[in-house]
Amino acid sequence: MGIRSVWLGVLSAGIILVNMPVESAPVTNWQTQAEATNYQQTARYPETVAYARRLAEASAFVNFQTMGKSPEGRDIVLLVVSKDQAFTPEAARATGKEIILVQAGIHSGEIEGKDAGFALIREMVVTGQKKHLLDHAILLFIPIFSVDAHERFGPYNRINQNGPVEMGWRTTAQNYNLNRDFLKADSPEMQAWLGLFQRWLPDLVVDSHTTDGADYQYDLTYGLEMHANLHPSLVAWQKTAFDRNIFPALTHMGHKVAPYIVLRDEKDLVKGFEDSASSPRFSTGYAAIQNRPGLLLETHMLKDYKNRVIATYDTLEQLLVYINQTPGTLRRAVTEADQQTIARSQRYDPNRRYPLSLKLTDRSIPFDFLGVEYTRELSPISGSLWVKYDPTRPKTFTIPYYNNFEVERAVAPPLGYIVPVWLTVVLDRLKAHGIAYQTLTQPLTRMVQTYEFSKVSWQPTPFENHHLIQDLTLTPIEREVTYPAGSAVVMLDQRAANVVMHLLEPDAPDSLLRWGYLDAIFEPKEYAEDYVAEKLARDMLARDPKLQTAFEQKLTSDPKFAGSPTARLNFFYERSPYYDQKLNVYPIGRILSPR
Fold first, then answer.
1. Residues 182 and 280: beta-carbon distance below 8 Å
2. What is the CB neighbour count within 10 angstroms for residue 340?
3. pLDDT for residue 570 is more than 60
């Protein structure tokens, strides 16, 4: 008996049972706030914490923990659910069972996962109806990730969403979107999450959301990394688990399931929709570079809250059903990915390429899209087309689905990196992600490969409290560098090697350099006075006829240069021994050889 029928059966029978073991107790006084209000409401933070504590007090299978505090001082709650009472990472690993992390409320207005997760845990450990789902799995459940955002509670937080009556906000008290923070880890909430991940190393991450976007028939859409950003063994596991088992089971239950819908043209459905290959700022992209499958659950915003909670509940249940039917298969795939990542870094191969970013191609497949009739009319208000959907008139459209990707940027993985001691922000992020490194006890001079930058430009407006680098040209260079004591030597023969590369390779889409953490290397601090540069230029031209030729060619080929006195004098200053040799040079070295 599932969430949809348990209340009707118990209440209509009028049965009240007492003195029963908690695993088979009645559910009449175990309703969530959502269920008690016919899914019109969702509980506030204090009631949510109280329900989580109550579950832990009622069952020996549940342990109440906290994983950190928010900027406003709220605890971020974690429930560990285990038949073996394996409530520590060490005990959980010893059971051999797969560890599944389910998080709700990363965007706290999209809160179905909280109510669905509580209902499923209740039926596993209180009523006992679903306790078999814990035979081969240990569940980590975060009912509210963005707890401060959850308490920015009100009826006007989600204009596109159909219920509940009131809900939380999208971003944290510091206005961070946590689902853009997984790699840069600016927020205290994300730093707490990373600590949780490192301790437990879950085998799969489930991130529960609600869509924005178009209207259509689907009540459940999903995102899975199925491309070169995820290890092949995990892609294969996902295809078997989700495409061949879990999603068909959900369809059989009456759900309409599709990949997450991102229309190519929001005003014209027939142009099709696109798959994505997430960068590691997102939950699924970060799970991928940690060699873990990540499931993005996106219930449809325009379906009512009850429908969305049930869709989330059924997905979590069917996921655990599959884990229960195929014990060990996920763990073996994860282990294979981790082992091959470590083995890859035993030697440097300049021909081996690791993909840093992927791009969508123009190849598509036909897709029978379960949409609704719509019309388009020119709006006198916006001056643009206004799309008007009619959900009472379902219609199937055959449209293109663009789901083919190719590698956009890649790198030959080095043996490791050396991070100078003064780059404290980089060292802090390595620690936050649990990256292993050795600290130099004395200065080290060695040849490394690094990069020289040119044509660097930044986004004009802030995003997540940063002005990101939007474009740059990088040129690999080799040089001998002396690194001071305290610098970090980060070798890649470790499980999280992919995370290291995404943090430290400048060309990675979410590298620390692209987020602006190393902007100081682009700032000139010394300069030549014009009257000094004039004399310097004449001296250099007198000594070097080739320089005279290069200068004249630059004058004739570049009118902007020719018209700028400053640029003309800098031409000589930049070629002189006075010029800052560290300017526009990446200070982190790539180790390509053992010595």
1. yes
2. 13
3. yes
Token pair recorded at residue 441? 């006890």
DSSP string, 360-395: E-S--EEEEEEEEEEEEEE-TTTSSEEEEEEEEEEE
Please give the Cα distance from 358 to 176 (Å, whole number). Answer: 25
Diameter of the chain by CA atoms?
A: 103
Confidence of residue 22 (pLDDT cuts 50, 70, 90): very low
DSSP element (H, E) containing 590: strand 589-591
Please count the other Cβ atoms lying within 10 Å of the Cβ belonging to residue 255.
19
Long-range CB contact pairs, 82-91, < 8 A, 24+: 82/134, 82/138, 82/139, 83/131, 83/134, 83/135, 84/138, 85/60, 85/61, 86/138, 87/63, 89/199, 89/200, 89/201
- Does the pLDDT value for residue 53 go beyond 70? yes
From the number of C-beta atoms within 10 Å of its C-beta (0-12, 13-18, 19+), residue 205 rates as: buried
pLDDT in tens, 395-430: 999 999 999 999 999 999 999 999 999 999 999 999
| Residue 284 pLDDT > 70 | yes
> Helix, strand or coil for residue 15?
coil
Beginning with the edge strand found earlier in the chain, give each strand of the sheet holding 365-378 in spatial order.
Answer: 273-274, 385-402, 365-378
Bridge partners of 64, per DSSP, are: 79
- The DSSP code for 98 is E
Mean pLDDT of 526-538: 96
